# Entry
Amino acid sequence: MRITIRQVEAFHALMEVKTVGGAADMMNISQPAVSRLISDLEAETKLRLFDRIQGRLVPTAEAEELLIEVERSFVGLEQIRQTATYLSNNNIGVLRILAMPSMSGDILCESVARFKHAHPKVDILWETRPKQRVLEWLTYQGFDLGFITLPCADKALGKKVLTNNMPCYCILPKGHRLSDKDYITARDLEDENMITFPLGSEIRHVIDKSFQEVNNHKSRIEVRNIETVCSLVAKGTGASILYFFDNLQDWMDKIDIRPFKPDIKIGFAVVYPQSRIMSRNARGFLDIYQTVHAERMAHFDQIISH
# Structure
């Protein structure tokens, strides 16, 4: 089997932008050239990677599986390129961090800003990925730190627990019919649209347990980003169950927050590879992040208590 880099680049581009024209623009080649590269890749792999449905190219299940391996390879190649650039520019290092979407909010932004102010010559690579991809890339792709929700049982990774008993809350549109209740239960929400995290995520699994006896929601909207959840709730689209989010103050005039019963606890941690010594940049960034996290948690508790 003779798969070329160019074929893989065409496949990756097409999976990214979903159209042959877009892939051609990304690669700076013609559309027929992209189509030919994809056809050659299908011939070499003996896989049908795309179906044409109503004039659109739709990836097959095999294409989705192949993309996982292609992305791993592309990350490795990109790191080699960036490292060579850093060395040629005489920079003094690079910090590579990974974070789940729900951990990519203002705490991480503030931490990056403070670290960059203290270390202006250090380059930072920040990738946002689902939890399983964060764990995989930390182990195999040379990243320094990962920011995740607990639990984490991966023995190849060390971890620093930030908090292990953060309760979840129900968030509602401002002035919702349930906003006057002291706390919200799953039964209270049985006639509400629910905005949730995707199936397969641990927090979704934990929350769904509380709704086992309540199955008549109007509908669900599944998203990964907390900002998106808050925006949808603020627009009256539905209710949600959320754990700590670090820019709560920005939403207080748009949503109502109530305790959720029974208690659902969530934890946060920073994880890192056990197979190598943590770099000086990673240690410095971790110290800053822990400080910012503690500040924001205290602020969150203050807002909730009021």
